[in-house]
């Protein structure tokens, strides 16, 4: 009984059938694993690949593992970012998806977006705002900027480098502010001591 329900869930997710997904979940389908067309499937991955944001939300509401991995160690966030799907990516980030997750080749979510074109810039912005690090390299020592350049998207590579530079500058400013804030009590104390003693 369980196996057919799991197949129905994956089939419904694949086709973006929101009613079918809800029904399968109601019947007790496994929201983390199943079978579709004779092969194992991860419902979250299928939903992200198809750009079915409503299905993603139903699965997450039912307790699906947000960062469940596909056959290559990829996550739903990686697929959403690579497709430039803001709705799915926003839903995943809001639910706590790991924006710095890596697949089996060490590729990050940002790298998946970077190697698929300049139209993914908005998704990269979302990832950065959510705390994604654009600096890491994969197992081949390629960064997100490198992936964009190799894929033939120099504008994307420049965009990533500019983002990194901006983040570095913000960190410098934040550090300077912290140091300045830490110094202020000491400065105030020295200034206080330098004041002439009050006289009655």
CATH superfamily of the largest domain: Ankyrin repeat-containing domain
User: Which stretches are low in confidence, meaning pLDDT under 50 for 5 or more residues running?
Assistant: 195-200
Distance between the termini: 92 Å
What's the CATH first level of the largest domain? Mainly Alpha
**Main sheet strand line-up:** 1-2
Identify the overall geometry.
elongated
Instruction: Return the CATH architecture of the largest domain.
Output: Alpha Horseshoe
Outline the biggest β-sheet. 2 strands, antiparallel
The percent of residues in helical segments reads 55-70%
- Rg (C-alpha, Å): 24 Å
Mean pLDDT: 86
Which fold does the CATH topology of the largest domain refer to? Answer: Serine Threonine Protein Phosphatase 5, Tetratricopeptide repeat
Which structural class matches the secondary elements? mainly alpha
H/E topology pattern: HHEEHHHHHHHH
Strand content: under 5%
The figure for the number of domains is 2
DSSP helical segment count: 10
- Strands, total number: 2
Question: Could you give a short description of this structure?
Answer:
This protein is elongated.
Structure description:
By secondary structure, the protein is an all-alpha fold. It folds into two domains: 1-65, Serine Threonine Protein Phosphatase 5, Tetratricopeptide repeat (Alpha Horseshoe); 71-200, Serine Threonine Protein Phosphatase 5, Tetratricopeptide repeat (Alpha Horseshoe), CATH 1.25.40. It has helices at 2-14, 18-26, 43-50, 53-61, 76-82, 86-94, 109-114, 121-129, 144-150, 154-194; strands at residues 34-36, 39-41. Strands 1-2 form a two-stranded antiparallel sheet. β1 (34-36) and β2 (39-41) form a beta hairpin. α2 (18-26) runs parallel beside α4 (53-61) and α9 (144-150) runs antiparallel to α10 (154-194). 39% of the residues are buried.
